[in-house]
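Batch job 17 of 40 flagged for manual review because the log was empty.
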Amino acid sequence: MFKSIAKKIKLAFIAILFIALAMSFFSFFSNRVVAEDYLYTLGLYTVLMISAYFGITPGLIVALLEVLFWGAVYFYETNVTKTRYQLSLKEIVWMFSFPVGAGLGGYLGNYLMIIDKLFKRYSVQIESLIKTGQLGMLGNENTFQQSLKEECSRAKRALSQFALFVLEIGNVEALEKIFGLDAVSEATKKVSEVLCHTTRDIDKKALLDESLLALILPDTSRENSTRTLERIEERLARVEMEYRGRSIKPHIQLKYGLAMFPEDGKTAEELSKAAKANLKVTAKKVRTDNKK
C-alpha cells in the first residue's frame, strides 16, 4: 500500500513549488519587474526541485552551474560589452541563494525519505489505523477473518491451541430504557475499550457489527480463556457511561460463544460457526435470566 509513498510525496512537494513559481511569475508580471528577476527565480526553484527529488548532490551541481553561468554573464558584460562595473547586492544575494536552496531542498528530500522509511516500517499498523481508526487495537470483519485464518495456520504448524470468543451485548433493551437509542453503540465502545485494555497485545480483537465483537486468544486453553472472560466482565462492571452530564454505571451484560481450536474446528469457517452456535445458547440463557 505504501510502496511508492516517497515518490508521491516528492511529486506533491514539487507540484507545490511549481505552483509557487507560477504565482511568483504572475506577481512579477503584475509589477513589471526586469527579466533577470524571472531568471533568478526560475534558477532557485529549479535547484529546489532537483535537490528535493534527486538529493542534495545533484542540487549542488545544478546550483554550481547556475553560479558559473551568472559569473560568465557578469564577466562578459564587464569585460566585453563594458555595460557593468560591479556586482550589486541583489545579485550577490541571488548567487548565494542557489547553493543555500540546494542544501534546503536536499534536506527536505532526505526528510521525505525518513518519512518513507517510517511508513514502510509501520505499514501494517498504519494500514490498520486507516481501516479501523484505532492503530491495530481493534479490527473489523475483514481484518479479523484474515487474522483467524492466519492463527489457524500458525496453530496447525505449532501443534498448539487457541480460543475464539464471539461477544455480544445481552441486555440491549434495558440499556436503551436508561440511555436511549444510542445505548448500544455507546455500550459497544465501552466493551471495545475493555477488550483492548484487558487482553494481550498478541490477542486479536475486532468489531464485527454494531454490537457483535470477536476475540482470538492464541496459545490459550479453555480454562485460561474462561479466566480472561471473567477479567473482562469484572472490568466491564466498573465502567461508566455519560448520560445528560452524569456518569452512570450501565451494568452491561455479555453474551458469549466460545470455540476452541482444534476441538471445535480446524478452519476459520468451522470455528466461527461453532462460536456463533454457542453464542445462541448463552443468549437464550441471558434472556431467561433477564425475565426473572
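Reviewer: the log was empty due to a logging misconfiguration, but the result itself is present. The beta strands are 162-169, 204-207, 212-218, 241-243, 246-248, 254-261. Unflagging and moving on to job 18.
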